[in-house]
User: What shape does this take?
Amino acid sequence: MAEAYPPSISDGSSSDNSEAGNWLQGDQDDGDDFSEQETVQVISLMDDKVFDDALAMVTYCKEKYGLDFLGVRDRLGLDFYGSIKLINFIRQKVHDGKPVKLDDIKASDLEDDSLLKPVLEDDALIVCLDDLPASGEAAPQAREIKQKEVPAVDELLRKNAQLQEELEKLSQQFSNYRLAVQQTLDQRWGEDDKPESSKARAEAPAPAPAPATNGTEKKDDSPPEATYYFESYAHNDIHETMLKDTIRTNAYRDFIYNNKAIFAGKTVLDIGCGTGILSMFAAKAGAAKVLAVDNSAIIDKARENIFNNGLDNVITCIRGKIEEVTLPVPTVDIIVSEWMGYCLLYEAMLPSVLYARDKYLKPDTGLLVPSHTSMWIAPVADEEYVTDNMDFWRDVYGFDMKAMQEGTYANCRIEHLPDAAVAGTAQCFRMLDLHTCTKEDLVFNEKWTSTYTSKDKLDGFLVWFDTFFCESRQEQVEKQLTWKQWMDVKGKESVAFTTGPFDKETHWRQGLMLIDHAKQPKGSEEKVKEGARLEGEIEYAIPEGHHRGLNIKVTWGLEGEEGEKRLSQMWMCH
Assistant: This one.
């Protein structure tokens, strides 16, 4: 079908209206060869005749069919959106073979916002509404009607110049129109799952940001901490960091693409979808439906990313907390989510995934991606790091700034340490099978042991996690297997990764907990020697009033030491 507007003859140096310009111009060339361009093609409201402008068309309909479009518009006092609804109301009647009686049309007939959705694909009449005389103005004498009239080059140049002047106004009007249509479709998406044709998708406007999720807006009564958490994910920087983490992103991509048979024809739920990357992986792997849920404003960017990549007929974006939104399906086959935080459980997103698992994932057959995570601890000795980052304050250009040290030992530091800093054997202290674990399993106290291998004094402890992607919920991962050992057992098609110090750095890095020796018993740092057997406990707890935070407490001592002989310290992740 012909474009609603011929392309602009601008040199394209201005990008202020690029999005609207691309919409209006469609797939046409840059406009250098005017002999190949087509003018506006307005299809009659009552039959299949085509006209060069809207006024000629409405005049024709009035004279031949007695259909006074302008008269009804003025009688009902319709604005821009009301006129769009009237156009689609008439076209739907004609399409259904029903008589059009304009005298019987009432304002109540046009209240349904579904009438904002065009009945006729690329309806040029909607685009040309501003060409019609305003209410109360006398209609100018329509020129002689000629079907499929091709204007001369001078006439096309004149129209293009006029369109350039009107483009800013039209862009604003149609941005508002797009928003209204998108909101309407978001409210009705569960009722109409017809996939769009590739042509319609290519020529339609990109979807505008929409606040609606499942048709109702909920007052956000979240505590300030929760509000900040979601707002922090609305910015590009954090998503760029995660996407550039190739260890992370490649693992999800490889598992999904290597297991297309698992995803083909399935319904997938993506929790915390961010930019939509995991949803698009799933759609490309053959998923029949993907539900992308995020409570951050990034969902608006995800919606556009999905649309621009031609996957909006498979993926539906829903803004809101997974605990509060209503999904259009009772169950899903697969839940995919990148929920992991620093030291694995910081930010407390996993409880939301477990909630969705229990409510939506098909029992017995449903799959969580990833499926397992293991948590590791090892002692650390890194004198250079301590000197550069902690002792630094004791001699700053000759001044003692020990006041600046206050609280620095109380925080878990997120760093990627060299493997040489690891001063003892690592131990897995917790394995989470995401198909069976509960929210209560995320708060715990576990035992750990290590053989100290360094000649230097013990400076602290390092925590990291491994992540595993199993192909079925029946598959298990042995607790003491590292990610690499598991992959060696599974074979080359298996997918897992680590955030530990022995491999490439990820954006999670490791949690470094430095011992504040000044608050420990005098001489205690000298007790741990090379070859010593350390043992102790590690505790994960949620701080009061900060449900997305994490407190980590470690106790340690030489083998056989109990009670008060053991040392302990707590660190805060925030």
Notes: The mean pLDDT is 81. The first strand starts at residue 42 and ends at 43. Residues 211 and 217 are 8 Å apart (CA to CA).
